[in-house]
Amino acid sequence: MRPNGTPGKAMKNQKKAFLRDIIFLGVVALITAILLMMHPEKRAPVFSASENFLVEMLLIMPAVMILMGLFSVFVPDELIVKYLGRSSGFKGMLLAILIGAFPTGPLYVAFPIAASLLKKGARVASVVAFLSAWACIKIPQELVELQFLGAKFMLARLSLTVVFVMVMGLIIEQILGRRSGK
Amino acid sequence: MNTTTLFINALAVICLILGLRKDREKTKHALKIAVMSFIKILPTMLAIILIIGLMSGFVPPKTISKIVGQEAGFKGILIVGALGAVLHIPSLIAFPLAASLLEKGASVTSVAVFITTLTMIGFVTLPLEIRILGKKFAVLRNVLSFIMALIIGILVGVIL
């Protein structure tokens, strides 16, 4: 998902993962076919449920992907490190969550960023908040959650997550010590 | 199309236009990334959609509510949380799955826990996290994330 990721090994892993996904799809398709052959009366409900979700996904996915692609190209890692390295305190944590919520690629991309933040002396609490927000609060992702689970569910989960991500950051900071250095 | 769909598509179009005006090459690159990500996610997406279909057709709501519903209690929530932590499905696809589970009688709490552990805890990426950020940091973050996810889920269940 990253434009400037490491080629070679990462590429190979991605290919492997893709192959695994296709095999998974094949197995599921096969099971579906067998089950539907044995129970023809279930065909209508199974297909109609699948179709509903397929349509909903196809209406939303391309837009989500475009947003993610744009963010990952226009928001470089250096920018993130620059902004997060500077700020601290409560505001720093909020900023960390906000920046983490930019859709810029999978979680493993964030590990090196987090490591360099720690090296630069950023607060552990901020780094934890950043990582966790990166993992579970993404703007397009929240929109998909809104679409499928409704505004109440999305808002409740989102606001609680923001609070608890900060609490978690503070707890880990207490345990590890204020700075990343031992 | 409902409002959310309209909104997210409009947002994508606006961002795309802004991107094109700012930097054509970068935007092209972004679109390439978008297409690649879509292709990458497609097989899993189709598989989950089939699973949702099968679930609607074959698994009676009673069974689902017994496993992940009110009846399942705290043990059910723990199981769902662990499942979310270990499974490696893209979170985007988890939402429709969660929605169909809810529809079929799963409890709000277990669905919220599932989504939260699924996104916040990377069982698959844990070795990488340990290597880059250190064992103590990575393990602490993941273990605490699990506990937090349980609390978040339970609170969401209480609120809704």
UniProtKB/TrEMBL annotation, chain A:
Ranges annotated as spanning the membrane: 21-39, 59-81, 93-115, 158-176
InterPro entries per the UniProt record, alphabetical: DUF318 (IPR005524)
Name recorded for this polypeptide: Permease
Main location: membrane
Species the sequence originates in: Thermococcus chitonophagus
Subcellular compartments: Cell membrane
Listed GO CC annotations: plasma membrane
Membrane topology, record value: Multi-pass membrane protein
Family per similarity comment: Belongs to the UPF0718 family.
Keywords: Cell membrane, Membrane, Transmembrane, Transmembrane helix
UniProtKB/TrEMBL annotation, chain B:
Designated name of the protein: Permease
Cross-referenced InterPro entries: DUF318 (IPR005524), UPF0718_permease (IPR053166)
Family according to the record: Belongs to the UPF0718 family.
Keyword Transmembrane helix: yes
TM segment ranges: 6-21, 33-56, 76-99, 106-126, 138-159
A cellular-component GO term for this protein: plasma membrane
Location(s) in or outside the cell: Cell membrane
Source organism phylogeny: Archaea, Methanobacteriati, Methanobacteriota, Thermococci, Thermococcales
Species, as recorded: Thermococcus chitonophagus
Membrane topology: Multi-pass membrane protein
Record keywords, A-Z: Cell membrane, Membrane, Transmembrane, Transmembrane helix
Coiled-coil annotated residue ranges, if any: none
Protein's UniProt keywords contain Mitochondrion: no
